User: Which sequence fits this backbone?
């Protein structure tokens, strides 16, 4: 059972009673980033106050301790995702992770006869790297059609995939609609065709139990800051044999075994091969603390609580008669809506004037807009510290949507 | 000439909503060659529109805008067109400068602004300052081009 009031005591952004526009902050933008508990902040500080040293660069105890910490974090992530620690590559975040697969694998192996499958609901970071791969290799981009509700189905994958398909890159949970894709079943079809499933986990890993072995994804990306960790740290999980085939996206210190003046270089084995340069060590310390914190609460509990919040929000917003909902059927804690007769951006400003942080716009999924048939939407997104009172504040604002110009006059 | 003192908040809201719902100058030019145009968009909001200027003998003959825009950018750009049509370039530029000064909460000449005064509170919503100014800065750039 989640007790968000008790949980909030761990979060300075709540304890400090942060206000926005003079009103108590109602944070409903968790799909974009999340608050950090004390343990994460302490871990980051710990690195600078008690443990500063560069990793794998010296023979002394402090350095050894940092190396150990990084190793432990990889082990913890292995436990969190059900993979081997050597299958965990540190990156700066989801975008970096997907680019690493796109350039390290896609550019190396794809040719003009190949196809990459995406959906219209993907975030820019799971679209634009593949556009680049297409530009550089001649491979074709195709889209798996979504069903009438915006859901990605196995049936539609079957209709789109061909023997030319080499990569299927899809989000496990899409950032605007919040459907949970049937990744395990999709992976089976993808593998039947000899292709790889590249899964964007930015919106799923923070919110539900993940078992990469059971899902059988080939790659999975996520960001630390969306799961209570620091910004600038993320993970790429890759099946080890695939990581071994991949080219490093960046070269430099920390990833080479040896090199000579003739230009010959030998790289380290993965995951170090992909971690050139000094890593975001404070980020790794913080990420480790965040993962432990989440495991302490329990991912299944988080998932169940957010589903409950989602159902509550949908039902309350529907009751107002003043909201247009675009994803009432989806499972994740993301509600995408518009206030009747109010442009999304004006609605978000109005919410701001009431202390409520929501996103308006196209949410980095610009190709979805054709599907929704609207220029822009407002998105409210929840986490395990979100309360029903937060949702009530949103619902009350939606009821008063017609007064949106109050944002400038009250 | 009304000023903020004479306009009640209700009247100001009414003016904004009127220009948003019934824009007078929201159109593409029928003879695009006669107009200079500039695209106005931003990374932090949805606004995405074009501003058009037709000048002749040092005067603004016509001003238009068209595209996707929130209430603040729609109404402010529409009122901008009202303010500059028929003016000579120097006065149009002075009006625009005065408006931009008002938004930035600097001293400004209210007598030049007429209805544009309704945006005096935009600073309350920092994220929308750009919306209230993007049409105006685009027009300023077009006027500078026209003068060359």
Assistant:
């Amino acid at each position: 059972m989640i007790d968000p009031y008790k949980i909030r005591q761990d979060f300075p952004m709540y304890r400090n009673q942060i206000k926005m526009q003079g009103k108590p902050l109602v944070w409903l933008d968790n799909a974009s980033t999340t608050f950090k508990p004390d343990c994460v902040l302490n871990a980051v500080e710990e690195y600078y106050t008690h443990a500063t040293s560069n990793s794998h660069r010296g023979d002394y105890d402090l350095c050894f301790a940092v190396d150990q910490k990084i190793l432990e974090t990889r082990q913890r992530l292995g436990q969190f995702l059900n993979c081997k620690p050597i299958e965990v590559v540190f990156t700066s975040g989801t975008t970096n992770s997907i680019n690493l697969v796109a350039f390290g694998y896609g550019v190396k192996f794809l040719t003009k006869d190949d196809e990459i499958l995406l959906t219209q609901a993907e975030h820019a970071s799971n679209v634009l790297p593949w556009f680049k791969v297409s530009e550089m290799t001649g491979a074709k981009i195709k889209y798996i059609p979504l069903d009438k509700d915006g859901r990605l189905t196995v049936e539609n994958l079957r209709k789109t995939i061909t023997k030319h398909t080499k990569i299927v890159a899809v989000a496990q949970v899409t950032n605007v609609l919040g459907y949970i894709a049937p990744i395990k079943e999709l992976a089976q079809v993808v593998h039947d065709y000899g292709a790889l499933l590249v899964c964007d986990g930015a919106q799923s890993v923070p919110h539900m139990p993940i078992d990469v072995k059971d899902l059988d994804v080939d790659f999975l990306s996520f960001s630390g800051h969306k799961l209570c960790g620091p910004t600038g740290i993320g993970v790429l999980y890759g099946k080890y044999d695939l990581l071994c085939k991949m080219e490093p996206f960046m070269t430099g210190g920390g990833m080479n075994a040896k090199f000579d003046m003739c230009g010959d270089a030998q790289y380290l084995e993965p995951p170090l091969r992909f971690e050139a340069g000094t890593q975001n060590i404070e980020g790794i310390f913080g990420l480790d603390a965040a993962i432990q914190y989440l495991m302490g609460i329990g991912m299944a509990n988080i998932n169940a609580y957010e589903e409950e919040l989602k159902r509550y929000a949908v039902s309350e917003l529907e009751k107002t008669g003043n909201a247009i909902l675009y994803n009432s059927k989806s499972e994740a804690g993301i509600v995408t809506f518009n206030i009747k007769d109010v442009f999304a951006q004006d609605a978000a400003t109005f919410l701001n004037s009431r202390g409520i942080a929501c996103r308006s716009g196209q949410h980095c999924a610009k190709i979805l807009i054709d599907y929704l048939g609207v220029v822009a939407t407002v998105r409210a997104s929840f986490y395990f510290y979100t309360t029903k009172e937060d949702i009530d504040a949103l619902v009350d604002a939606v009821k008063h949507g017609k007064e949106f110009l109050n944002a400038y006059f009250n | 000439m009304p000023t903020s003192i004479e306009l009640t908040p209700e009247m100001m809201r009414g003016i904004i909503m009127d220009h948003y719902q019934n824009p007078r100058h929201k159109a593409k030019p029928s003879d695009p060659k006669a107009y200079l145009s500039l695209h106005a968009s931003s990374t932090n909001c949805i606004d995405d529109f074009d501003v058009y200027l037709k000048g002749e003998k040092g005067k603004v003959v016509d001003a238009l805008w068209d595209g996707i825009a929130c209430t603040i950018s729609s109404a402010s750009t529409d009122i901008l067109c009202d303010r500059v049509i028929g003016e000579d370039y120097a006065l149009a530029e002075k009006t625009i400068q005065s408006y931009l000064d008002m938004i930035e909460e600097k001293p400004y000449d209210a007598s030049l602004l007429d209805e544009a005064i309704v945006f005096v509170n935009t600073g309350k919503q920092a994220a929308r300052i750009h919306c209230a100014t993007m049409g105006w800065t685009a027009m300023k750039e077009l006027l500078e081009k026209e003068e060359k």
Remarks:
- Chain B has one domain: 9-147.
- Chain B has a mean pLDDT of 92.
- Chain B touches chain A through 19 residues (CB under 8 Å).
- The first helix of chain B runs from residue 9 to 21.
